[in-house]
Design a protein that fits this description.
Helix content: 25-40%
Radius of gyration: 20 Å
């Protein structure tokens, strides 16, 4: 097999660790040179120990400001010219958009993975129109654009944001050696868990409201919340619900498997913007009940298990 130079563009260590580490390990094991562009983190050593070359690249994960983000395009161009990769893989909105603009300039082949659109297109406003335009001038020229669900694919087609360079890649997948079917917990308590960033878009308000209503009627229930607090306003709310015993906040968990194992049901009341939610795939792989809102991505998982 011919050895390749592979460049991966990411906005955060944890997204690669949770969803791509098996792929990256396979690429390294096959002898390819793997370069990863992502923000500075003490955890990056995980991939450098694996054999990857880490290129620390600042990425502002919140908000889209083309003028402010112009520096990211310049950084990506410099990286691509220096490495001269055979192929580029990108995940999440900024690496997809700005990486594609850069690779269009440097004439490198790039494969985008649309891992969900977040809250970008839930409401039509100035920002959503700007991002539509950015997608049109970037990923249209990509070598390939993978969508994780049909709703996102259809939206991009309808809004003329891609050409015929797309396909469906249904989710990031689950390591079935790690997430295996296990017996439901025994005992009097019925345990639920919310796994995700603590923010309005993920439906944390609905989960907290449901936890309060159910616990008032059924004392033998426990509601876990796992994830880091993305939006500042929820710090006081989470503290209050935790101190009152309505929920048990366990913070971000690098290894979520033991917590899924403790629970009977995983709840994801997301408002939209999901790709294929891995928390539901992992929970389903372990034989857990899943409750989710009827949105793109979550809907596909429901169909797959009917």
């Amino acid at each position: 097999m011919e050895k390749k130079k592979i460049l991966i563009l990411s906005n955060h260590f944890i997204t690669l660790y949770n969803f791509r580490k098996e792929l990256i390990k396979k690429l390294n094991d096959d002898g390819h040179m793997v370069f990863i562009s992502m923000p500075k983190s003490d955890n990056n050593k995980f991939f450098s120990d694996m054999g990857c070359k880490i290129i620390e690249t600042p990425v502002d994960r919140r908000g889209i400001n083309p003028i402010k983000d112009f520096g990211l395009i310049i950084n990506y161009i410099k990286i691509m010219k220096e490495i001269k990769p055979d192929i580029i893989f990108s995940y999440t909105i900024k690496p997809n958009i700005y990486g594609s603009i850069a690779s269009n300039i440097t004439k490198n082949r790039q494969i985008n993975n649309i891992t969900g659109t977040g809250g970008t297109f839930i409401k039509r406003n100035f920002v959503s129109e700007v991002i539509k335009l950015l997608y049109k001038i970037s990923v249209k020229k990509s070598y390939k654009v993978f969508f994780q669900n049909y709703g996102d694919r259809d939206f991009f087609i309808k809004n003329n944001m891609i050409k015929d360079n797309y396909d469906i890649l249904p989710g990031s997948g689950v390591n079935l050696e790690q997430f295996q079917v296990s017996e439901l917990p025994r005992g009097e308590k019925i345990n639920f868990i919310f796994i995700g960033r603590i923010m309005e878009l993920k439906g944390i308000d609905q989960y907290l409201e449901a936890a309060k209503a159910v616990k008032e009627k059924y004392q033998n229930t426990r509601f876990y919340v796992a994830g880091f607090i993305e939006e500042e306003k929820y710090k006081a709310i989470i503290d209050e619900y935790h101190s009152k015993g309505i929920i048990c906040y366990i913070g971000f968990q690098k290894d979520i498997k033991p917590w899924i194992e403790k629970c009977h049901c995983t709840v994801l009341p997301s408002h939209g913007g999901e790709g294929i939610p891995n928390v539901l795939l992992e929970s389903a792989a372990m034989g857990r009940i899943c409750i989710a809102s009827n949105i793109n991505g979550s809907r596909e998982i429901g169909r797959a298990h009917v």
